[in-house]
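Final report, closing paragraph on structural work. Over the funding period we assembled a curated collection of sequence-structure pairs, and we close with a single example.
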Amino acid sequence: PSGAASRDVIGGGMLDGIKHIMSSPYLLGIASLILFYTISSTFLYFQQADIVKRVFGDDSAARTRVFGAMDIAVNALTLLSQLFLTGRFIKWLGIGAALAFLPLVTMVGFGIMGFAPTIAVLVVFQTIRRAGNFAIQRPGREALFTVLDRSDKYKAKNFVDTTVYRFGDQVGAWSYTWMGIFGLGLSGLAFTMVPLSAAWLILTLWLGKKYRTREAGVQGNRTAG
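Its predicted structure, as stored:
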């Protein structure tokens, strides 16, 4: 019977995911988590474009070498982390710490870039951030959905992973352009991401606490069943 129930059609309408997110602080927190991530990622992407253009100009070969080296470093760090670090990190420190890793790196990285918006700082920051997202942040983020019911796992998650993600990406692009219009240079733009990253960090700690509470409830229900 339980297997049959797991194959039942979830039902409902296409707007259920939005309704559930707006009525659940936990789901709203997950959506906000994605917004913080995508806004900061878009900011860093534009800063990367500005710095690379300033340093390399029209030298496409040099740009290709730098980006290629970054991709190799990200892939290597991600693979090694997933093999030897990710599972232990989450087991020992918990989901909250896994979620907090990326905003902490982002806050420190943008802070350093605010003082020194150089290609060396950019390469190190971007490499650590991308690898940290793939190896630590994303597994922690996906774990947040494991304590939800089937409807929220699929409907709310789908809305978060598509609409919210793209909306945050667009907000980041608009914000970067608008702030540039008001005369903020590379340093000023980088500093604007520090308070946003701090808010993101606080949110991850709250989500980690809520996850532990929900996980304990799910395990209690299984034991009772």
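Residues 1-6 have pLDDT under 50 and may be disordered. The chain is about 85% helix and 0% strand. We thank the funder for supporting this effort.
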